[in-house]
Amino acid sequence: WLDDSPQDMFGKIMSVKDDLILEYYTLATNASSEAIKNVKMRLDSGENPMILKKELAKQIVEELHGPEPSKAAQDEFETTIQKGELPAEIPTVTIPDLETKSIVDILVTAKLASSKSDARRFIEQGAVEINPQIHPYPRLNTTPFARSYKQRKSIS
């Protein structure tokens, strides 16, 4: 994951189990032992682990990519994942014969899925929206829908 973009890295760190926060601070940051003790104290006192994970993600991304990419990654995470808004930049893809293609074919053609199996999995997991309804049917053709698509990217 060291080669990931700041946004992907931030998201992956946010998906870490709460009980691994201290281990990540210890092994993946340059945090001092005093700072790590402070994190432990905050966890033990019942502080919301999400707050600590945001700080952890920000610190790791900042150490590997710098302060500006770290801040941008946090902003994008909060906007797209926590608030459910669209990302600031969404690429546009032209797909020939759109009306005759299934959603699976569209996701693969647009490179939003690496294979038809991945595309079906995204759809079945509710990760594909069309104007803005979630569609759980991989075989559904696009004819009745307008031509704008949004994919929520699953972070694993």
Keywords:
7 helices, mainly alpha, 5% strand, 156 residues, three-stranded antiparallel sheet, elongated, single chain, disordered C terminus, 50% helix
Please state the overall shape, judged from the principal axes of the Cα atoms: elongated
Tally of helical runs: 7
Largest β-sheet summary: 3 strands, antiparallel
* Binned strand content: 5-15%
Order of strands across the main sheet: 2-1-3
Helix content: 40-55%
Helix and strand succession? HHHHHHHEEE
**Beta-strand segment tally:** 3
Structural class: mainly alpha
Average pLDDT figure: 82
The gyration radius over C-alpha positions equals: 19 Å
Which spans of ≥5 residues are poorly predicted at pLDDT below 50? Answer: 141-156
End-to-end separation in angstroms reads 10 Å
Provide a short characterization of the protein structure.
50% of the residues lie in helices and 5% in strands. The protein has 156 residues and is mainly α.
Task: Give an overview of the whole structure.
With 156 residues, the protein is mainly alpha-helical. Helix 4 (49-65) packs antiparallel against helix 5 (67-82). The model is unreliable at 141-156 (pLDDT under 50). It has 7 helices and 3 strands; from the N terminus they run H-H-H-H-H-H-H-E-E-E. 19% of the residues are buried. A hairpin with a 2-residue loop joins strand 1 (128-130) and strand 2 (133-134). The protein starts with 5 loop residues before the first helix and ends in a 5-residue tail after the last strand. It has a 3-stranded antiparallel sheet, with no helix packed on it. The longest helix is centred in the middle third of the chain and has 17 residues, at 49-65.
